[in-house]
Structures are given as C-alpha cells and as structure tokens.
Amino acid sequence: MSSNRMEISELGEFGLIDRIAGNARRENASTIAGIGDDAAVVDCGGNDHVLLATDMLLEGIHFDLAYAPLRHVGYKAVAVNVSDIAAMNGKAEQVTVSIGLSNRFSVEAVDELYAGIKAACDNYGVDLVGGDTTSSRVGLVISVTAMGRAHKDKIAYRSGARKSDIICVTGDLGAAYLGLQVLEREKQVFLANPNMQPALDKYEYLVGRTLKPEARTDIVFEMAEKGVVPTSMIDVSDGLASELLHLSKQSGVGIRIFEDKVPIDNLTYDTALEFKLDPITCALNGGEDYELLFTISPSDHEKIRLHPDIHFIGYVHEDKNQNVMISKQGTVVPLTAQGWSHFSRQ
Ligand code: ADP
Ligand code: MG
Q1: Do residues 220 and 98 share a domain?
Q2: Which of 27, 33, 79, 202 is the most exposed place for a label (fewest CB within 10 A)?
Q3: What is the distance in A from the centroid of ligand 2 to the CA of 137?
C-alpha cells in the first residue's frame, strides 16, 4: 500500500469524476458520448440515439425523512433523471429503480416511495422497467437510471456553445435552496419544542421546489415545436454558476451574464433577505432548481423571444477564461462554482 493518501476533498466531486473519466476506455463505436455530459449517448442504429442518465439519492445526504415525505423522495428520484435526459434535448422513456432499505422501513413505507415513483412515471410518460432491491445499513438509498432518446442531429451537448450565442435559463432560480433553509429551520424549531407546529404555509412555493422538483420536459417539447435546437444545454442541479462554468469549459468559450436578468421569484428574494442571504448568491450557487440552462444561436432568438418562462441572461464570447457576471451596479464579478460539494460539506 502506498503511504501517500489523498483526501477526496482535495479533488472535489468534479475533480474526482475527471480522474475516473481519464481512465475510462471506449471500446465500442456505438458509444457516442460517455462521462461528462448530463447523459451518455449511444448509437443503436437509426436516426435516434439512446440517452442514459443515472443519479443516486441517499438519506441524510440528499434528503431528510424528518421533513421529506417518502412519496416526494420517490418522485424526485425519477424527476432528476428525467431532467438529465431533457438536458440532452431528449425524451425519457424508461427508468430502472434500485433501492437499499434498512429494517426501519415497512412495506407501507415502500408503497409510499413507489407511489411517488409511479406519479413521476405517469407525469413524464416513463415506464418503470426494472431495478434492484437490497438491504442497507445507512437508511434509504435510491438509485435511478433513465433511458431516453433524441434525434441524433438534435442532441444538445454541453460542448456546443459558440461565440455570440444567447444564454437562456428557464423558470426561476434559488427557490429550492431557500425551501431547504426553511425546512431546516422548522426542523430545528420542532426539535427544540415538539409541540410547535411548522409554519410553512407562507413558504409553500419554496418548499415545493425543494421537495418535489419538476423536470422541464415542457420546454424541450415547446422548443422542438418552434424548431429551435439549443447549441448547448445542461440542467441546473448544482447551481447556475457551476453549470455555466461547465458550458464554458466543455465548449471552450467564455460566459457573460447580467445580474438583473437572472430570474428570481419575489418570495425567493424576500426569504433570502429574511435569512440574511444575498438573493443573487442563492440563485447562482443554491442548486437543485432543475431548470434548463442552454444557449441558442442569435438567429433563433426571435422564435422564443416572447416565451414567458425562458429568460435571456447573457451571451457567449470567445475568451474561455473570462466567465463573469455584470452586477446591477455595473461591476464585473468573476463566476465561481460553489455548488453542492458533497465531499467538502462533511
Ligand atoms: P449531473 O449533475 O448532470 O447528474 P454529474 O455532475 O453527476 O452530472 O456527473 C457528470 C458526469 O460524470 C456524468 O456524465 C456522469 O455520468 C459522470 N459520472 C459521475 N460519477 C461517476 C462515476 N462514479 N463513474 C463514472 N462516471 C461518473
Ligand atoms: Mg445534469
């Protein structure tokens, strides 16, 4: 054994994935794209390529059963994978679901989990086609793999952004992060005094965004209807800044966004201030929004200009080392990734 030991936190999640990717060989011509995008791309013949995405949720890391109902956990586990397929401009069609269960869980609890999985499958038109079941010593583990498809000429990779492209993001950002802060606060209040009822009504939108995120399959559908193929795309799981840096790195381009264009819901804004947080920091680094971030050719702008849920937040330029946000005051702020870092938070 080597006496040298490197901590995973030294590499971080993305560094670790790069290291794994560096050692992955590609034997098969059918493997069109492997590690490094929202989903892998496989050529199975024909005009459509198959898309494959997988994501694992662990109790205590990704969800806390003190406030996340099992039904929502099941829904979210499917939705986040469907979101990764959507981020390739594809449609998910099948999922497999693997679960690890400790003896704390009853049959009724598993029924609840699968009620959520079924609700998501019904909502996104996806079939549950398999999985695996095992015992666990660390509470609930749920791993979902989604399979989907897209026309091979319409797949949106992270690497396709080009100079002058317009940067677009759907919905609004930061709400899921603040929903989590609200839930954490109410949990602490409850632990201190179990007679207290959680005061969540006012924050319903935020809590909903964190417990039951939706994949933006509607956007993929509407863009196709308007004949727009994004030049690059990614879903916002770690935070807008982190995802923008992925597009920059993989496309070899620079990003320039404008603070006043970043969509933040009023409740998100007010709740951030209540928590003494900067709303734009929550939007940039909060994560778990599962909105779509994409770039379009300027010639496509007119086709989606009036879409009520697509926001134009900046543009792509040549210098890949210049990834910045122009603040409301006009200052140039470098974009830095402070997304969820599972390895540094513990
Ligand atoms: P996303 O947030 O879109 O799910 P991730 O940041 O989790 O993407 O993963 C980025 C890429 O790295 C994906 O292509 C994913 O399949 C791949 N990846 C992540 N972890 C591993 C691993 N342990 N082994 C191989 N590939 C991995
Ligand atoms: Mg993704």
Answers
A1: no
A2: 27
A3: 28
What does the alpha-carbon distance between residue 142 and residue 58 come to, in Å, rounded to a whole number?
A: 6
Domain with 194, as residue range(s), is 166-334
Task: Using most ligand atoms within 8 A of CB, pick from 17, 159, 235, 249 the residue to mutate for ligand 1.
Answer: 17
Do residues 190 and 329 both lie within one domain?
yes
Q: What is the pLDDT of residues 130-170, one digit of tens each?
A: 999 999 998 999 999 999 999 999 999 999 999 999 999 99
Which atom number of ligand 1 is nearest to the Cα of residue 38?
3
Q: Does any ligand 1 atom lie closer than 6 A to the CB of residue 69?
A: no
The DSSP secondary structure of 154-167, one letter per residue, reads S---TT---TTPEE
Q: Round the average pLDDT of the chain to a whole number and report it.
A: 94
Same domain, 194 and 86: no
204 is written with which tokens? Answer: 């319903």
Q: How far is the CA of 40 from the centre of ligand 2 (A)?
A: 11
pLDDT at 1: 54
CA 326 to each of CA 166, 273, 279: distance values in angstroms, whole numbers, following the listed order:
15, 21, 15
Quick check: 261 and 315 in contact, CB under 8 A? Answer: no
Which CATH number is 185's domain given?
3.90.650.10
Indicate if ligand 1 lies below 6 Å from the C-beta of 35: yes
Ligand 1 binding pocket includes 243 (Cβ within 6 Å): no
Instruction: Please name the residue whose Cα sits nearest to atom 22 of ligand 1.
Output: 17
CATH classification at residue 107: 3.30.1330.10
Domain count, the chain: 2
pLDDT for the residue numbered 2? 56
pLDDT band at 337 (very low <50, low <70, confident <90, very high): confident
Q: Name, in order, each residue with C-beta under 8 angstroms of 181's C-beta and a sequence gap of 6 or more.
A: 271, 275, 277
Find all residues with CB under 8 Å of 278, minimum gap 6, and list them.
Answer: 272
Residue 107 CA to ligand 2 center (angstroms) comes to 32
Query: Is residue 55 within 6 Å of ligand 1 at its C-beta?
Result: yes
- Residues 18, 92, single domain; the answer is yes
Strand order in the sheet with 48-58: 31-33, 40-43, 48-58, 141-151, 91-101, 127-135
